[in-house]
Automatic annotation (TrEMBL):
Listed name of the protein: ABM domain-containing protein
InterPro entries: Dimeric_a/b-barrel
Organism domain of life: Eukaryota
Amino acid sequence: MVFTLVVGLLAKDAESASTLSQKLLAQAYRKDEGTIDWFVMKDTKNSLKFTIVERYESPASNPIFATWQPMCDTLLSEPYDLRIHNELE
């Protein structure tokens, strides 16, 4: 079963949005063991809003989240919105 995370982010300012963009576009995330896919999107109306869709083989396949979260928190104006799903088969 595929484990999927959908994360909504709101950067606190344009500089934070730029930093966040650079970090989110890093190809390292796609190459993590257990990662099926990693999509990053920017809102069409608000350049400070991002959505990430992450697909993993299992919940244990997300080793980077614990280190990524503290860095991300310093760039956000509010807590991120995390939604966790198992894809229907």
